[in-house]
Amino acid sequence: MSDTRVWYRSLLKGRIAAHVARGTDNPNAIVKSTRTTIERNGLGHGILEEIFAEVNAESVNPFLAPPWNQPQRAERFRLLKSSLLG
Fold it and tell me: Measuring CA to CA, which of 12, 48, 64, 67 is 20 to 30 A from 32?
């Protein structure tokens, strides 16, 4: 993978993970910027599947059980994933 693809992948993963964790960003803005980044840089939609698998494993599943109990993360994740992959 080229350096620019790695950089854009990291950027997209960071934005998605940050929204899943905090929920302070506008989800529509994340969806739009993600689609634009993928199209302009020829990243392909397979990269999104990889990113969502990693975000789910790192930022969603560990926080669903005690001591954190943050089910809202799963809902934000579901909404972004359905908007971008669905």
Answer: 64
